[in-house]
# Entry
Amino acid sequence: MILNTMNLSDQDIDRILQMAWEDRTPFEAIETQFGLPEKEVIALMRSQMKRSSFEMWRKRMNGRTTKHKSLRDNTVERFHCSQQRSISLNKIAKR
# Structure
């Protein structure tokens, strides 16, 4: 799989990694903001993390309903916790 990260800045990659690590941020939010589908996010995580950290992350994410919008409760319509402050690098917040 070839990653489409050539047009991503280091800040974008850092933000993608942060969003992927968060339990409540669905993969669809990452795809909306950065254009990377789940498989490419997983490949990016694999390339940017130590093997043990990646395996721990995959174990946590496997089957987690909050990481997939289609598995979430229909009442949840946001990408982040309502308590979370606005993130300056969040591309959607700047629109």
User: Anything to note?
Assistant: The mean pLDDT is 75. Helices lie at 10-21, 27-34, 38-48, 51-61.
